[in-house]
Design brief:
There is one protein chain. The protein is mainly beta. It is 9% helix and 51% strand. It has nine helices and 48 strands. It has a 22-stranded antiparallel β-barrel. Strands 11-18-19-14-15 form a five-stranded mixed β-sheet. A hairpin with an 8-residue loop joins strand 26 and strand 27. The two termini are 32 Å apart.
Length: 813
Amino acid sequence: MKKLCLYGLLWLFPIVLCATTYAQTKPMPKTGTVKGRVTGSGDDRPIAGITVRLAGDTLAGTSNGNGLFLIRRVPVGYNTLYVAAEGFHAVTTESFLVTASDTAVVNIALDTMQVALSEVVVAVSPLAATTESPVSMRRIGTEEIDMTPGANRDISKVVQSAPGVIATAIQRNDVLVRGGGANENKYYLDGIEIPVLNHFAVQGGSGGNASLVNTDLLRSVNFYTGAFPAAFGNGLSSVMDMRMRDGNPTRFKGKLILGASDFGINFDTPVSRNGKTTLLASYRRSYLQMLFSVLGLPFLPTYNDYQFKLTSKLGASDEFYLIGLGSFDYNRLNTGLKDPDDDQKYILGYLPENRQSSYVFGAGYVHRFRAGQLRVVVSRNAFTNKLYKHERNDKSLPRTIDYNTEQSDNRVRAEIELRSVGGFRFTGGVGGGSGHYDNTTRRPAYTGGQLRTERFDSRLSFGRYELFATLSREFFGKRFSVLLGLRADGTTYSSEMHNPLRQLSPRLNLSYNFRPQWTFSASVARYYQEPPYTSMGYRDSTGVLINKANGLRYIASDHFIAGIAFTPDAHSRISVEGFYKRYSDYPVSLIDSLPVSTGDFADYTIGDVPVRSVGKGRAYGVELSYRNTNLANTVVNVSYTFLHSQFNRPGADLRPTDEYVSSDWDVRHILNVSAIHKFGRNWTLGAKWYLTGGSPFTPYDFGLSSQTGAWDARQRPYYDYALYNSRRLQAFHQLDVRADKVWYFAKWRLGFYVDIQNLYNFKAAGQDILMPETDASGQYVPDPQRPGHYKMKTVAHDIGGTVLPTLGITVEF
């Protein structure tokens, strides 16, 4: 890490020094301009005579006959707008960035007030819940994404600050929500599903090391941990709805980002002369391979990603857009290490080299009319994963692992939203598509006391279909709201999954504003998720789809959620929320009788084993949360979650029992405290401290792990599943800090940041590594007391324990 710090400082210091010197000799502009349009939320009509104020300031503008407003001399940096007009509910916008080099555009939709004017009405806040999702929804704006300490603008790391989300180790960004696995989350970008969110993703289980979504291109993120919108299917623990902003309609804009681990370029520009067609795009590449080699790490990863959005305003009511998101990753082993330690030897022993690529391309059409809108989206995605490993990591020797797979989807969805149908709000839609999976696997396996090579080839294609509808209404002057929803999914994969009535997903959301600032909300729902392709396409050596023959089904989860929220003003919210999740039909491995989602962070695929849909589980707990977006010029987030996460372990005949054991995510306690303060002269300082209770773990099966054939097949120890998760690690906590400084010039903007994860270098002891002893030539040492076994040793292993600094600059022009 010292080498990394010095490396970053060597090239960043001269740049920042030059920028500071230049800033001191040239006056810098301190204000910019904000413009936008005020319309009605129900019919998109312009509203004249509305005063739009800068929150916390006297600056204001008034909308004209076309609903347009303009505010000049707005301080540069992040700002919000506030509207309070007679006959309309008050509105506070999400934060947006103001620069001197360009005009910020903020459009505001107002809701008509249907209560007596004498009643007290609380401003509509970016923190407020909605009728569609009155519980378990968190809005994340651009300021929080940019400034969250320790996140490095990785959206997966940003949401790890949300209530109920487990913070993982520095090198991971798995999203683990309310006691569920990383494979239980679904991600959408402008209404298009993103099956692979991360570089170096774990196939069948999501997770990974870094998000491939460039958050600089995002406008907002809605993160749901319950009460999922019916249009978004296939999620059991969370749904992340990301929305990209449009490109600049007036001039070309660019941004260069140079950090300690990667570099990137963004640009947004008008494509047509009238500015009605715009393009927003980015490309990023890491040079982690070079840095990890300098640091002496046993693996050398490199990733690339791209992202774009082309938007065309076809008229006053019609819009068309194209989006693309893709990646190419390569991770090779650092076999040139001199005198590797035991931890490095262990990783080099089991970890294969990996090539991954993914893409999503989609198109959307939106038609707005007086009573609502119609949206149609079409997309295709694909993910390719290649894993290979040679004997003793010598490429002149045969491969012990040769895994090649590709999965893809074609999807189409049409949905209509009617904002007022006899006082009701209706949303409905239909969708369909096809799924494809190809897999060629050659890998060692140890079964029946014998080391053998597992071989199978699999090709799979099937159709899928969906339909959904919700009906909602507000009563008593919008103090009480009700939503009824229904969703059904089906696929031609098998007779167990083809009938959508078997996957009927009802939901009921209630919200009651019993005092002006107090709201009680509740949600009851059932959700279904398609099993991973790795399980659906698993075949034995004879070519039979084993899991299809075993009656593989959709995974089901019932959610029961209730909470109370206190919203004293538009900037702050205090809430208490309880939840209970009940799982059924979870795929259980026939090898170890465990749910397929319980693979550890060392796994590179999950679910490619024989399974049966007999698993049951539960997760329950309570969340306490406080958010304030402007407490003495500070953004403050505090949350505490107490949870239990368990599954019902089947008996020897795979029938349910009364025995519940802790899942891998049964951490019990999650505490997050973060603050981001804005100082003068465009300095920002943030800190985040979080604590996660100790994770349960399973002791090793020493006898099986030491057998020569067993170890040679896996190159990792085997667990004693009779004692599954019977032990627990110590609690893990960490402090991340971030400092940002921005210089504003007439036509460009320069930013510098320092982000340090695990500032006080906390080291939590993890489960010890069990591995064979080696001789001077690196060969495993047989145990003279036990023929057919290796002589084993344990090696201490820390979770975290690394100070990870990141230095970077951004140049926006």
